[in-house]
From TrEMBL:
Pfam families: DUF1799 (PF08809). It comes from the Bacteria. This is Phage protein. It comes from Noviherbaspirillum saxi. InterPro entries: Phage_TLS_TfmB (IPR014915).
Length: 140
């Protein structure tokens, strides 16, 4: 079986960014209310039809799907999300890195087999990188 590891890791990165707060709407917020407002404003028919084609029946909700291949890694991350090293300054607090010693202890205490730890740790480093990348983008 040929597995798309790039796609799998990309989806895990998207889930991490979503967890960190990156919740951009997928349909630009077009819904039935948008269409009604355009009709009230007297928008041209072609504009209304264009928006109707893009509109979702309900307002866009913040949803992020996690692939089955990533589920165990993401669940483990949620278990150890308290392991962030945070630096606090005068005006704000910043996530700096995950405490790898704490994560190693959690792997041991959760009974994760040695043969599975390397792949899980690699996924956690990807999640860590995605969260820190998103945090950096928020500051700009």
């Amino acid at each position: 079986m040929d597995i798309d590891l790039q796609g799998e890791r990309k989806k895990l990165k998207e889930a991490a960014r979503f967890w960190a707060g990156d919740r951009a709407p997928s349909n630009f917020g077009f819904n039935a209310t948008t269409v009604s407002l355009l009709e009230l404003a007297g928008a041209p028919a072609e504009v209304i039809q264009s928006v109707e084609a893009k509109a979702s029946p309900e307002p866009d909700e913040a949803v992020c799907y996690v692939w089955e291949e990533n589920w165990q890694s993401f669940q483990f991350y949620l278990m150890v999300q308290s392991q962030w090293v945070i630096v606090t300054g005068l005006t704000n607090s910043v996530r700096v890195k995950l405490d790898y010693a704490g994560i190693g202890s959690a792997m041991w205490m959760d009974g994760i087999h040695r043969r599975d730890r390397k792949a899980l740790f690699s996924d956690l480093r990807l999640i860590e990188s995605a969260v820190l990348e998103y945090d950096g983008e928020k500051k700009r």
